[in-house]
Each structure stands twice: as structure tokens, then as C-alpha cells.
Amino acid sequence: MKTATYYPGCSLHSTAIEYQLSTEAIFTALGMDLAEVKDWNCCGATPAHAAGDFLSHALPLRNLIIAEKMGEEIILPCAACYNVFRKTHKFMRESTKEADEVNREVAGIVGTRYQGKLAVRHLLEVFTEEEMLNKFKASATRPLTGLKVATYYGCLLVRPSEAVAFDDPEQPRKLDLLMESLGADAVAWSYKTDCCGGSMAVPRPGVVTGLVGNLVEAARRAGAEAIVTACPLCQANLDTRQHPQKAGMPVFYFTELMAAAFNLPNQEKWLRKHIIDPRPLLSR
After folding, report:
1. pLDDT at position 237, please?
2. CATH architecture under which domain 129-282 falls
3. What is the pLDDT of residues 220-248, one digit of tens each?
4. What is the DSSP letter of 162?
5. DSSP E strand stretches across 141-190
6. How many other CB atoms are there within 10 angstroms of residue 173's CB atom?
7. One-character DSSP codes across 68-81
8. What is the DSSP letter of 95?
9. 43 exposed, middle or buried (CB, 10 Å; 0-12, 13-18, 19+)?
10. 251 Cβ partners below 8 Å, 6+ apart?
11. What is the value of pTM for the model shown?
12. CATH 1.20.1050.140 fits 2-123, yes or no
């Protein structure tokens, strides 16, 4: 059984537990083990940069150093974590005076410097390799035939392109290809990488509600019955900030739809945690 070095991040152990549970189920079905980065810490995601450049790199760097000891690559499911890790990985590989200072400081805590040889990959990147897509197509015992989904990447998964480059920053297609391999129809729409409001949901909820409303209406106009994403913050905003007077549109993590197509057991454990219940749509 192959083991993958895995960084879940804070969200997957709390508000995005649906993502964690469905990811674990997929890896089990694939015959793979997930080895969490030992004693991992929060990557800083949204707030660390506000405290300074040093902290914004030092937090993910500690995890990168530990992961580099564990294997040749690290897999991250969270778009925000992936974005931060990739930017710090690029920063370290540039070997500037500032990067060397951060590396030296963090090495004083962890005991080893970061060598920059680790492959930092998002889970979606791993699952959309051609071999994997062919495997998923053959393994979909309950294909999602007729399900129309709007694939939503958000701001962080494919930008900035010089650091986060596994898909096109303007017209990404990886998530579409994955959904199509499962039998679903990925609708054409122009809001794939528009912002959902991110972490403004608490300080500026009105802003987020407006942005989410625009996204959901655009998906509906495109013919979608659901939105599928790979970002915990996007999923949380889209699932909780839709207009209360309108019919809600289910918002899935891509791993949940994979589990549905593979007809995996115990899907109720994560599907029941959604605010907008996706089960009536899947029951078709």
C-alpha cells in the first residue's frame, strides 16, 4: 500500500470535516495510506501576512521541513494551504538573503534547513493525472450521469500563476475533467476563479453575501444544479451565505462527488454536515 505525506490544515480538522472524511474514504478505496505531517502547525493562511513577511513564510516552512524528511512530495487538499506552501516553496528556492534568514531561523527550531526538493502538490493535481482519470472513469460504479455542476476554483487554487501553476489561471480545466470522468456534466461559465469574499464573511458579511449571490445566480443561469469546489473557505461561504429566501444550491467538495460516483459506504457521515442538504439531489 502506497503512503502519501499529507497536510490536512486546520479547516479539514474542523469546519471542513466533510472534506477530510471524504478524502480519507477515497484514499482507502484507492488502497493508499495518508501519513499526516508530524506535529504540523497552522500554515498562517489568511492572517499571517498581516503580522509580517517573516511569519507568513516561517509557519508553512516549518511544515515543509518536516514533510521533506518524510518523503519526496506533500499533498494538500486545502486551496489556501496549498497557495501558502507553494509561495513559500518558491521563496525558499530563490535563495535570497531574506529567504536564507527565514530558513536559518526556522532550522534553529526544527533542526534542519529546507532543501527545496519537496514536490508540493494539491490533491486535485494528483487526482487529475491522465492515469488517475482513466482509473476513475472505470471505477465509477454509480456514475453521476446527468448531474450538471459548476466547477469553482476560487482565487487561491491557480493564482499567482508563477507559484501556483498546475492549471491555467484564467481558464482552468482540471476540475472539469475530473467531474467528466465521473459522468457529470461540467457547465460552461465565466465565474470559475471569481472571489467568494474569502475571510470577510465575519467582518463584512454583506460583501460576502453579495458575492456569493452573484456566483450562485451565474451557476444557475449556466444550467448547474450544484457547485463543486476544492477550497474549504469557498465551500463554507457558498454553503452558508446564499440568500435565505431563495432555493439553495448544494455545494460539494470534489471528493464527495468522487465518493458518490464510487458508491462508497458511510457517505452520510459527511453529507449530513452541509447547511444546504445535497442528499435530495444525489438521491436521483
Report:
1. 97
2. 3-Layer(aba) Sandwich (3.40)
3. 999 999 999 999 999 999 999 998 878 89
4. T
5. 148-152, 185-186
6. 14
7. HHH-SEEEE--HHH
8. T
9. buried
10. 226, 227, 228, 229, 235, 238, 239, 274, 276, 278
11. 0.96
12. yes
